[in-house]
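Retro notes (design track)

What went well: tokenization of the new backbones is finally stable.
What didn't: we kept losing track of which sequence belonged to which structure.
Fix going forward: every design gets posted as structure first, then sequence, in one message. First example under the new rule, 210 residues:
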């Protein structure tokens, strides 16, 4: 990464000063996120992150053993934030369709803010095997969570509902790709509307088919 690129992702030109170990760790993750979103995960190196924060890389190695561990924690942080946001959006909503719409709105709100980073983190699976493993584990967990929800609400057999959840989750990857190619408010609205219609229509068809 060029010096200009490092400067662009640096949060400030000031010394980071004395901060807690947890805050320091978050600072490194924030820098890695900016580098990944702007330049790709291949550019997320220990040297680049340390330079973006303005510290000696020896300090970074006190928090992370290597780039793989740094990218894995960044993946965990970003996906956990998305999953929590989607869960909170439906916490006080009654009725299946209103819940689906609230969930989708929260997900696409997050997409509008972080699509570039999410797209880059998916690329990290080819670089850091642990990220690929964690991604599969997350998908299996979400398949069960959402599939069991569909089964309870619509009377779809659990395994069939979990299959549907897997297909719908895969569709979100397509939404990320589409957004990154043509990011705009109109694209976001169209993606959300299309996804919700496909989700509700497909699940209802499965339910009625029983």
């Amino acid at each position: 990464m060029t010096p200009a690129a490092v400067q662009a992702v640096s949060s400030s030109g000031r010394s980071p000063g004395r901060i807690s170990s947890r805050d320091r760790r978050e600072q490194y993750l924030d820098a890695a996120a900016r580098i990944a979103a702007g330049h790709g995960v291949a550019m997320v190196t220990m040297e680049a992150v340390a330079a973006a924060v303005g510290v000696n890389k020896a300090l970074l190695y006190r928090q992370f053993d290597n780039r793989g561990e740094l990218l894995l924690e960044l993946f965990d942080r970003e996906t956990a934030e998305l999953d929590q946001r989607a869960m909170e959006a439906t916490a006080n909503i009654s009725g299946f369709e209103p819940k689906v719409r609230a969930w989708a709105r929260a997900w696409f709100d997050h997409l509008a803010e972080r699509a570039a980073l999410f797209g880059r983190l998916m690329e990290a699976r080819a670089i850091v095997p642990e990220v690929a493993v964690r991604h599969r584990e997350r998908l299996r967990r979400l398949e069960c969570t959402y599939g069991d929800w569909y089964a309870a609400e619509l009377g779809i057999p659990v395994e069939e509902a979990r299959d549907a959840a897997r297909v719908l989750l895969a569709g979100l990857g397509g939404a990320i790709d589409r957004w990154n190619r043509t990011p705009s408010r109109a694209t976001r609205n169209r993606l959300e509307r299309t996804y919700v219609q496909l989700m509700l229509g497909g699940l209802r068809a499965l339910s009625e088919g029983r």
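Added context from the reviewer: Residues 3-64 form a domain with the Arc Repressor Mutant, subunit A fold (CATH 1.10.10).
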